[in-house]
From TrEMBL:
Upper classification of the organism: Bacteria, Bacillati, Actinomycetota, Actinomycetes, Micromonosporales
Membrane-spanning segments: 6-22, 29-48, 60-83
Protein name per its UniProtKB record: NADH-quinone oxidoreductase subunit K
A Pfam family recorded for this sequence: Oxidored_q2
The keyword Membrane appears for this protein: yes
Keywords recorded for this protein, A-Z: Cell membrane, Membrane, NAD, Quinone, Translocase, Transmembrane, Transmembrane helix, Transport
Enzyme class: translocase
Gene: nuoK
InterPro entries in UniProt: NADH_UbQ_OxRdtase_chain4L/K, NUOK/Mnh_C1-like
Reactions performed catalytically: a quinone + NADH + 5 H(+)(in) = a quinol + NAD(+) + 4 H(+)(out)
Cell compartment(s), UniProt: Cell membrane; Membrane
Length: 107
């Protein structure tokens, strides 16, 4: 099997995810773009596992399983943060989030 098609597909998915992270203002869409990047990495890991025979049997599939678990944890924590942000600010726009909390006297 020639691994060119899965590698090109993974590169396109990863590029689309990077574009989504850099361009989007909505926090939920940024999380979806991160998920696209993680799925691209999973595709590369599984493709490399099937094409390159290393000393570790099914190593790419095991790493892909770890990435899936990491993605599930990231979505859980990320959506909790987005929900709290919406409750506090009534918006989920990423560029309106204050990175450093100012003291009450400064405005």
């Amino acid at each position: 099997m020639r691994p060119v098609i899965p590698y090109v597909t993974a590169a396109l998915l990863f590029g689309l995810g990077v574009y989504g992270v850099l361009r989007r203002r909505n926090a939920v869409l940024v999380l979806m773009a991160v998920e696209l990047m993680l799925n691209a990495v999973n595709l590369i890991l599984v493709t490399a596992d099937t094409t390159v025979r290393a000393q570790l049997p099914h190593g790419g599939q095991v790493f892909a399983l770890f990435v899936i678990v990491l993605a599930a944890a990231e979505i859980g924590v990320g959506l909790a943060i987005v929900l709290q942000l919406y409750r506090l600010r009534a918006t989920v726009a990423v560029d309106e989030v204050p990175l450093a909390e100012r003291p009450e006297g400064e405005r």
